[in-house]
Design brief:
Elements: H1 5-13, H2 16-32, E1 48-49, H3 52-63, E2 71-80, H4 84-97, E3 103-108, E4 111-116, E5 125-128, H5 134-150, E6 161-169, E7 172-180, H6 186-204, H7 218-228, H8 232-244, E8 267-274, H9 277-289, H10 294-310, E9 314-321, E10 338-345, H11 352-368, H12 374-381, E11 395-400, E12 412-416, E13 422-423, E14 428-435, E15 438-446, H13 452-471, H14 485-492, H15 509-519, E16 524-528, E17 531-534, H16 535-551, E18 559-562, H17 568-580, E19 583-586, H18 593-603, E20 607-610, E21 624-627, H19 632-636, E22 652-658, E23 666-671, H20 672-685, E24 692-694, H21 703-714, E25 717-719, H22 729-738, E26 743-746, H23 748-757, E27 768-771, H24 779-787, E28 792-797, E29 807-811, E30 824-825, E31 830-834, E32 847-852, E33 859-860, H25 864-870, E34 871-873, E35 883-893, E36 899-904, E37 908-911, E38 914-917, H26 918-927, E39 931-940, E40 946-954, H27 960-968, E41 979-982, H28 1010-1013, H29 1019-1032, H30 1050-1063, H31 1071-1075, H32 1079-1086
Parallel strand pairs: 5-6, 11-14, 16-25, 18-19, 18-20, 20-21, 24-25, 24-26, 26-27, 27-28, 40-41
Antiparallel strand pairs: 1-4, 2-7, 2-12, 3-4, 6-7, 8-13, 8-15, 9-10, 14-15, 16-17, 22-23, 23-33, 28-29, 29-30, 31-32, 32-35, 34-35, 35-36, 37-38, 39-40
Helix pairs in contact: 4-6, 9-10, 9-13, 10-11, 10-13, 15-21, 16-17, 20-21, 22-23, 23-24, 29-30
GO molecular function, one term: phosphopantetheine binding
Pfam families: AMP-binding (PF00501), AMP-binding_C (PF13193), Condensation (PF00668), PP-binding (PF00550)
Domain Carrier: 1015-1088
Length: 1088
């Protein structure tokens, strides 16, 4: 059936009822040229193979016995005089007429079969609730309906229809019908209700049944379908769908409120909404103008919403067709419905009208090939199988525009009763109802993944989007508005209203120190290995160095390299450069000489402050060298008075080099205004003043800036550990105790190790602990609270380009999420989560984190193009000079306005077609019991397939197989590392972060093939391989072949399971074959 413009214009002009009738006639005309007629089977008493759709539900029940996901529930409210006996006779007649309602199922030699019982005693179960008060009655009715809706069926015992009449009073009752989906679909419910109404009407008047005998039964259709599927029609349809869905994304990454469970529970809920009349009429008018149906326009709108939520431009959405194309099927009860996958192409940011054209072409082609059973398509495409989500698509769209059944009965008023108990067969289903009064919609959602608030917001976003396309359908998809005004204001304004700075900002950083030195001149400023410098001594020595540097030409805009070992002289150098008006460039002596040389040359520093033991590293560079030890006499002759300030707020204070994507570091230019704001923000946020701060990080990392200048501006003592790099954590406790350290800032993994290795009494002086620099695992708070419950723990976030920090979160309870939030913006700072087109993303939707405010630095030294790309104009500000820094980090807003860090954008990887966030996987592994640390890497095996490898530091005696099993409870199978490698410790860089490049390559990346190493296989592995080869008829398999990707399907997996259960001495479920679809994984599970 080909749809011309005239045809679609005619269809769109019809009412929903007329349109449905015309479409049905057109389909039946087309079908008569395609398929043979369905006839009665020869032996009505013989077992009959199940239909292909039934086969899928049979397998589902084997995987999840005792479930209720496919219980089809409907309820009618009846008011008036009800003849219960007549109602029961009507039910008995329906069961007699439709064999499928007398059918049970069993496993046959070639798969499951239908067993039809000649007669079944159908009884209407009656529950009298008439004696209860109204409120109690309503509550008890809902409880009983919920319980009956959730009661599972046993497919092997028949009786797959249950009816209950709840009597609420003399003239009020509710009829509840629960049927398993394997014998009935949504269309069938209408057939059931119409027949029941007709039967009740005639039987109550004493007349016989008005219904004609059915020419065929559902079992006849199942036999016909199996025969028809052998025809060339199947191959033609299969070729179309194979082409259409080639390389389609296997999983839509929707913004869930909760992690996806390993196995779907099908817990569901609904959220309702209504589109106003103007939007509803506008969508119909737009559809007519674009030569499309309303279904196509609404589907395009829904896929646009999904694109804006996920960033994916390739979006498969499921829909259903009645699949009753032969006239004789229309009055049958049975499971006929078929599922189609409509693959949305939203690439290239098309205009909405262009997307409707694409959607129209996709939908029309799909409807022309709608006869291929979804089960055949899944078996042919062999997608990655999981118990946690539906294959090929996880989101469905349905437009309901069929006329309602006439359910008027003599003496009775009937009305549908909304069922509170809901199951969700997919992650998300959007159902739109086309009525004479406009469009009504509801979401059916998986309540394990989403919450009601998310769906309420989604309703608002869909309405804003559809209203916009009605007003102007020529706008590109990325430019369509999505956020209601109130939500946009909350994101851009309300959640950026921060605490004002605690005091006015001085123009220069060193003035904060000088003011403190004037207040407490004799207090200890720096402590290191028995050395002490008072504020007065530190100030005077820094002044002397500043005068000396000015004599060498140092002033505003001049960069001075500083390469010193950890000692009080380091602080003298940093402050001396600032007082001279210059900006320091930290050069960590532990860095390789080539890196140090590059940084000195790139910065064009004309002066280098170092010490005699290090000066030979810079012998080939032309910078003037000042050695703080051997030039000490020259420095001592300089004046101790403070030099006249030269640097202003817009002059550079320092340039810190960070890792660059080219392999060479890049210098971040930080002004006095940037770092003064960053420092005063600490005064504002942290109520506990610094009395003693232990500086763990290298001064070449910007986290050192927090400790140095916060401490020296509040009169505290800056404690420097001995040696270079990360100090021995076991001995660190003594240092903390000896100096009564009150404040500590380090990365979470280092703090976790410190809590494990130090004595609790050595940590007792800590009042404020801050972690930053990497994702904070939730269990760190439990560790912290267990050792030093009196200290506060904070999680900070901020890139060097935003001057140390820009958001912070105080941990006050164990987080329920995979990672600790990074909180809210610090004072006078703006944080936005934007999509690729710089539009704010909704609450819960991942976006790139952008930072604005006085902490945003000048940019990259000698990299104007990179600066222009990463430091952009603030599109939400009226100030044309206001800039945002694009962090390259992914985050999302939680409902309370806190930010959740999701990882680097460039840490997203594709594994077997799935998009995986390495940070999420690491967070889950780190939370597992007995895992002290975890990191995940992507490696290529010998076939150049990408595989996830997890590296874990675990307690003694921990089984890696058990850990992987535990990870499967929280992550989809594609996100669980294919190999876990146990290491004694993770390799680290000088700043304490994990050195990913030094992680060892696991041995199992060598692909084990059938030919090369079957002699090394275990007996169990050979047994599994033999069963696989027999079941799917292949000559060889490897340890890492995926059962479903080399030919396994729903029928063969049952065969393998039955044989394997007999062969091994372990309690097995068929679900284990889905969880462990390779021989290596399955054998490791059976024999850990």
């Amino acid at each position: 059936m080909t749809a011309t413009k005239d045809t679609l214009d005619l269809l769109n002009s019809l009412s929903p009822e007329k349109r449905a009738q015309v479409l049905k006639s057109l389909k039946q005309e087309a079908l008569q040229t395609q398929s043979p007629r369905i006839t009665r089977r020869a032996d009505p008493h013989a077992p009959v193979p199940v239909s292909l759709a039934q086969n899928r539900l049979w397998l589902f029940e084997q995987l999840r016995p005792g479930g209720h996901a496919y219980n089809e529930v409907s309820a009618l409210r009846l008011e008036g005089t009800l003849d219960v006996a007549v109602l029961e006779r009507g039910l008995q007649e329906i069961v007699r007429r439709h064999e499928v309602l007398r059918t049970s199922f069993a496993e046959g030699a070639e798969g499951p079969v239908q067993l039809i019982t000649p007669t079944v005693a159908t009884r209407l179960h009656i529950v009298d609730l008439g004696g209860l008060a109204e409120v109690e009655q309503s509550r008890e009715l809902q409880r009983l309906i919920d319980a009956e809706s959730r009661r599972p069926f046993d497919l092997t015992k028949g009786s797959l229809l249950r009816t209950t009449l709840f009597q609420l009073g003399a003239r009020k009752s509710v009829l509840l019908t629960v049927v398993h989906h394997i014998v009935l679909d949504g269309w069938s419910i209408g057939v059931f209700q119409r027949e029941l109404a007709e039967l009740y009407r005639e039987l109550s008047a004493g007349r016989p049944s008005p219904l004609r005998e059915l020419p065929i039964q559902y079992a006849d259709y199942a036999v016909w379908q199996r025969q028809w599927m052998k025809d060339d029609v199947l191959q033609r349809q299969l070729e179309y769908w194979t082409r259409q869905l080639k390389d389609a994304p296997p999983l839509l990454t929707l913004p869930f409120a909760n992690p996806r469970p390993e196995t779907e529970r099908f817990a569901g809920a609904r959220e309702y909404f209504t589109l106003d009349e103007q939007v509803s009429k506008g969508l119909s008018a737009l559809s007519r103008r674009l030569n499309a149906s309303l279904f196509m326009t609404l589907l395009a709108g829904f896929q646009t919403l999904l694109y804006r939520y996920t960033g994916q431009t390739d979006i498969p959405v499921g829909t259903v067709v009645a699949n009753r194309e032969q006239p004789e099927l229309e009055q049958l009860i049975g499971f006929f419905v078929n599922t189609l996958v409509l693959r949305g192409d939203l690439g290239g940011n098309p205009r909405f009208e262009e997307l409707v054209e694409r959607t129209r072409a996709t939908a029309l082609a799909a409807f022309e090939h709608q006869s291929l059973p979804f089960e055949k398509l899944v078996d042919a495409l062999k997608p990655e199988r999981s118990l946690g989500y539906n294959p090929l698509f996880q989101v469905m769209f349905i437009l309901q525009n069929m006329p309602s059944a006439d359910l008027t009965l003599p003496g009775l008023t009937l009305s549908p009763l909304e069922i509170g108990s809901v199951t969700a067969k997919y992650d998300l289903t959007l159902v739109m109802d086309e009525t004479p009064h406009g469009l009504h919609g509801h979401w059916e959602y998986n309540s394990d993944l989403f919450d009601a608030d998310t769906l309420r917001r989604m309703s608002g976003h869909l309405e804003v989007l559809l209203r916009a396309v009605v007003e102007n359908g020529t706008r590109p998809l990325a430019e369509l508005p999505l956020l209601p005004e109130a939500e946009e204001r909350r994101l851009l304004v309300e959640w950026n209203q921060t605490q004002p700075a605690a005091l006015p900002l001085p123009p220069s950083l060193h003035l904060l120190f000088e003011d403190q030195a004037a207040r407490t001149p004799e207090a200890v400023a720096v402590a290191h290995a028995g050395q002490r410098l008072s504020y007065r001594e530190l100030d005077e020595r820094a002044n002397q160095l500043a005068h000396h540097l000015r004599g060498l030409g140092v002033g505003p805009g001049k960069l001075v390299g500083v390469c010193l070992q950890r000692a009080p002289e380091l602080l003298v150098a940093l402050l001396g450069v600032l007082k001279a008006g210059g900006a320091y460039v930290p050069l960590d002596p532990s860095y390789p000489p080539l890196r140090l040389g590059f940084m000195l040359e790139d910065s064009k520093a004309t002066v280098l402050v170092t010490q005699d033991s290090l000066r030979t590293r810079f012998a080939t560079h032309g910078a003037r060298v000042v050695c703080v030890d051997t030039d000490g006499s020259d420095l001592a002759r300089q004046r101790k008075e403070r030099p006249t300030p030269l640097a202003g707020e817009n002059d550079l204070a320092y340039v810190i080099y960070t890792s660059g994507s080219t392999g060479m570091p890049k210098g971040v230019q930080v002004t006095h205004r940037n770092v003064v704001h960053s420092t005063i923000a600490r005064w504002t946020y942290y109520r506990e003043p610094v009395s003693s701060f232990l500086l763990l990080s290298s001064y070449a990392f910007d986290s050192s800036v927090a400790g140095i200048f916060w401490t020296l501006s509040q009169g505290g003592t800056l404690v420097l550990p001995e040696g270079e790099g990360l100090p021995d954590l076991g001995a660190l406790g003594g240092l903390l105790s000896a100096h009564r350290v009150s404040h500590l800032l380090c990365i979470p993994s280092v703090y976790s190790l410190l809590l494990q290795q130090a004595r609790p009494e050595d940590l007792a002086s800590l009042k404020t602990v801050m972690v930053a620099g990497e994702a904070c695992p939730p269990r760190l708070f439990e560790q912290h609270r267990g050792v030093i419950p009196s200290a506060d723990l904070f999680n900070e976030y901020g890139p060097t380009e935003a001057t140390v920090w820009c958001t912070v979160h105080k941990l006050e309870e164990v987080p329920r999420r995979a990672s600790v939030p990074i909180g809210r913006p610090i004072s006078d700072t703006r944080v936005y989560l934007l999509d690729a087109h710089l539009h704010p993303v909704p609450i819960g939707v991942p976006g790139e984190l952008h930072v604005g405010g006085p902490g945003v630095t000048r940019g990259y030294l000698n990299h104007p193009e990179l600066t222009a790309a990463r430091f952009i104009r603030d599109p939400s500000s009226q100030d044309t000079e206001a800039r945002l820094y694009k962090t390259g980090d992914l985050a999302r807003y939680l409902p309370d306005g806190s930010l959740e860090f999701l990882g680097r954008i460039d840490d997203q990887v594709k594994v077997r077609g799935f998009r995986v966030e390495l940070g999420e996987v690491e967070a889950v592994l780190s939370r597992l019991p007995s895992v002290r640390e975890a990191v995940v890497s992507v490696r290529d095996d010998e076939r150049e397939n990408k595989r996830l490898v997890g590296y874990v530091v675990v307690d003694a005696g921990v089984s890696l197989t058990a850990l992987r099993e535990a990870a499967l409870q929280q992550l989809p199978s594609h996100a669980v590392p294919s190999e876990l490698v146990q290491v004694d410790s993770l390799p680290r860089l000088p700043n304490g972060k994990v050195d990913r490049k030094s992680l060892p390559a696991p041995e199992t990346l060598r692909v084990t093939t059938q030919a090369s190493s079957q002699t090394q296989w275990t007996e169990l592995q050979r047994t599994i391989a033999a069963l696989w080869k027999e079941a799917i008829n292949v000559e060889s398999v490897s340890l890492d072949d995926n059962f479903f990707q080399i030919g396994g399907d729903s029928l063969s997996v049952v065969r393998v399971f039955n044989r394997l259960r007999e062969a091994v001495d372990k309690e097995l479920s068929i679900t284990h074959l889905f969880k462990h679809p390779t021989i290596r994984a399955l054998s490791a599970f059976i024999e850990p």
